[in-house]
Amino acid sequence: MDVELRQLRCLVAIVDEGTFTDAAIALGVSQAAVSRTLAALERALGTRLLRRTSREVTPTGTGLRVVAHARRVLAEVDGLVREAVSGHAHLRIGYAWSALGRHTPAFQRRWAQAYPETELHLVRVNSATAGLTEGACDLAVVRRTLDERRFDSAIVGLERRLCAVAADDPLARRRSVRLADLSGRTLLVDRRTGTTTAELWPPDSRPATEETHDVEDWLTVISAGRCVGMTAESTANQYPRPGIAYRPVRDAEPIAVRLAWWRDDPHPATQPAVELLTALYRNG
Question: Which residue among 92, 152, 243, 254 is the one 20 to 30 A from 79 at the CA level?
Fold first, then answer.
């Protein structure tokens, strides 16, 4: 069975226009070509799709169902074509937990001013590649290294590591904490996208860990006092909560913020995005 898009377009045109003659005009072909195309579609499907009289053309019961499916197929194909042709008019930047922290609003505003022809969209995808592998974005903000065989990336800035504790936790009364202060606690981590593992601590003083896969769950558990967390400072900017206190971990290495993209298919706006983000981080 071979069904072609031109056959589906022909069927929909006949139904919408009401006659073979008007369908031919709408499609820019001859009436004979419309008749042949419809006949070929009916042969391919093995069923009659239209009732034809001297006065009108109406779909059969099967024809009504086929026309409905044809409209959806044609809409999907038209969307695919628009995406392929005009995809570079949009730039989708994915992120897993926090986008760019306090730089997020400035990045959006400056991008709109400098590159109005490329519409910017920030997309939250809680996956290891922040949406790259899933096809949800063109660039991704990540805070861990990715597979260098598939992806390229550039470090655009550094962020401090912060401890997240319940607001009534004794550590919340301090201005900063050390890694040793957390070694006896239970650390809530996201192994897929997070920046924290127990390996940050010496082998003999590593905290116990529990796992989560969502930032809202992470925040809820920590605010209840059952676990503590460690995260990039952008999380504190993106998710301030009355029940949570964020404190710097002064002896923990900072986190590198990377912009990543597919090695074999970089978006044309990749370099401008890297340059703008680097400038924002550099200028604080």
Answer: 152
